[in-house]
Design a protein that fits this description.
single chain, alpha/beta, Uracil-DNA Glycosylase, subunit E, six-stranded mixed β-sheet, 35% helix, DNA repair
């Protein structure tokens, strides 16, 4: 099982200066900013163009993503793709990334499955420089946080998805994280919703999916 190292250097020293997205994706393979690289198969960075009107940020890659090296390609990713299609935004028109770029997990007792573990605050903060570097290059109209971890990484741990779910809000000023996230030009909007994996875990999956799809439709309309 993965544990946190409070003495980890953070990703800042691994992020190249004056980099484009391809440079960031390549450099991330060498990141040793926290302990998660030790057990993960590979880094999973992002997919999409810098000029995508809609940016979606999740928590971390899952088991399938860790094996394939691309975000949102497992069961939760398939559900997200379906909802984006229904909202009129093809997956290829969005930018998809995660707050944490390596898979955190523990193995089942017999070692046959890798079970998702939520990244801790140390790991989220350690990985923040990659997310900041991405946002320095992005020009979205709408930023969507998929789940509480992503929302906390973007706007601070005090934010509650349950209170503001599906609401279009001004993109957070850099004062939320002084010296971190840049102001976006042109200004963007922010919307938080649940992570698609929460839909898959719901007792009433159909209702949960409809609510999730409705949130993405709000974001897609604003990004159009």
């Amino acid at each position: 099982m993965t544990t946190s190292r409070t003495d980890a250097p953070g990703a800042g020293e691994f992020v190249p200066a004056r980099a484009d997205l391809d440079d960031l994706r390549e450099a991330a393979h060498g990141c040793r900013g926290c302990d998660l690289y030790r057990n993960a198969t590979q880094v999973v960075f992002s997919v999409g163009a810098a000029d995508a009107a809609l940016v979606l940020v999740g928590e971390q890659p899952g088991d399938v993503e860790d094996r394939e090296g691309e975000p949102f390609v497992g069961p939760a990713g398939n559900l997200l793709t379906r909802a984006l299609d229904e909202a009129g935004v093809g997956r290829g028109a969005a930018y998809l990334t995660n707050a944490v770029k390596h898979f955190r997990f523990h193995e089942s007792p017999r070692g046959k499955r890798r079970i998702h573990d939520k990244p801790d605050r140390v790991q989220i903060v350690a990985c923040r420089p990659w997310l900041v570097a991405e946002f320095a290059l992005l020009r979205p109209r709408v930023v969507v946080a998929l789940g509480a971890t992503a929302a906390g990484a973007l706007v601070g741990p005090a934010f509650r998805v349950t209170r503001s779910r599906g609401e279009l809000l001004p993109w957070p000023a850099s004062a939320q994280h002084p010296g971190d996230f840049p102001e976006l030009d042109p200004p963007a909007l922010f919307l938080a919703t649940v992570h698609p994996s929460a839909v898959l875990r719901s007792d009433d999956r159909q209702a949960a999916y409809q609510a999730f799809a409705a949130d993405l439709a709000v974001a897609a309309k604003a990004a159009a």
